[in-house]
TrEMBL record:
InterPro entries reported in the protein's UniProt record: PAP2/HPO (IPR000326), PAP2/HPO_sf (IPR036938)
Name of this chain's protein: Phosphatase PAP2 family protein
SMART domains tied to this protein: acidPPc
PANTHER family: AT30094P, SPHINGOSINE-1-PHOSPHATE PHOSPHOHYDROLASE
Pfam families: PAP2
Transmembrane segments: 80-100, 120-141, 148-167, 229-248
Start and end residues of each Phosphatidic acid phosphatase type 2/haloperoxidase domain: 77-188
SUPFAM superfamilies in the cross-refs: Acid phosphatase/Vanadium-dependent haloperoxidase
Record keywords: Membrane, Transmembrane, Transmembrane helix
Signal sequence range: none
Length: 253
């Protein structure tokens, strides 16, 4: 019984998402109907709320947040690097391989109210759902957040935001969330669970900081057209400034 309960505690995201994914795979009409129901129902919420929620699934923003979280748990840096690396790789390969058209390109004109720019890549799987699940899984399996229910609610909100925005199907977000969870769960469990030497982790964290700086420069060079741009810019700037401060203090010691 202890073994079964421990497995349930560790694997419940997969146990919840797998039946839903199977149902959507077996019934394309259900995939379409769920999208239309969520997309139309989401119109009751201001569009700015959905766009701001999308920031929690934006890969550059999530990677900056994960870098900042690794400062608290440097022993989890291997999990961060491998989990995110696998997640980004899967998102790129699967999107290119399946090349699923996004809802506005398939549904009749007027059925979809786009709340943001339409991405030019494939729809399946959702990179935003994957990134948000990766962030939530890192928080949970690294022990920095014990409230798995609240973390899961945050991922579900990002999933709904992608449907509300009009750029993803339900199957995209459910598979994306499952892949993001699996990538980070496996990384936290098997990728050097005891961590790397402190000196190596500190050097790698310092090397990751310029990437945040480049992202900040890119945001300043190419400002967005919607409200979430300010949130993405603020998160990136805060992480970069905090990282530079940590690096300077370490140099003075």
């Amino acid at each position: 019984m202890w073994f079964k309960l421990s497995c349930l505690r560790r694997l419940w995201p997969a146990l919840l998402l797998s039946p839903l994914i199977l149902s959507l795979l077996l019934s394309p009409d259900l995939n379409r109907e769920v999208f239309l129901a969520v997309h139309q129902g989401a119109r009751m919420v201001p569009a700015v709320c959905w766009r701001l929620l999308n920031v929690l699934g934006d890969w550059p923003t999530v990677l900056a947040l994960l870098l900042a979280l690794s400062w608290r748990r440097p022993d989890k840096l291997p999990a961060l690097l491998f989990g995110c690396g696998v997640g980004v790789f899967l998102a790129i390969v699967l999107k290119a391989g399946f090349a699923v058209p996004r809802p506005p390109l398939v549904l009749p004109p007027g059925a979809v109210q786009l709340l943001d720019d339409l991405p030019g890549n494939g729809s399946f799987p959702s990179g935003h759902a994957m990134a948000s699940a990766t962030l939530a899984s890192f928080l949970y399996y690294s022990g920095m957040a014990r409230k798995g229910l609240w973390l899961s609610a945050g991922v579900v909100l990002v999933m709904c935001a992608r449907l509300a925005t009009g750029v993803h199907w339900p199957l995209d977000v459910t598979v994306g969330a499952l892949l993001g969870w699996a990538a980070m769960y496996g990384a936290c469990r098997w990728a050097w669970p005891q961590g790397w030497p402190a000196g190596l982790s500190a050097r790698l964290q310092s090397l990751m900081l310029p990437a945040v700086g480049l992202q900040l420069l890119w945001l300043l060079y190419k400002p967005g057209s919607h409200e979430e741009y300010g949130l993405r810019l603020a998160v990136c700037a805060l992480v970069f400034v905090a990282g530079c401060w940590r690096w300077w203090r370490a140099r003075l010691r």
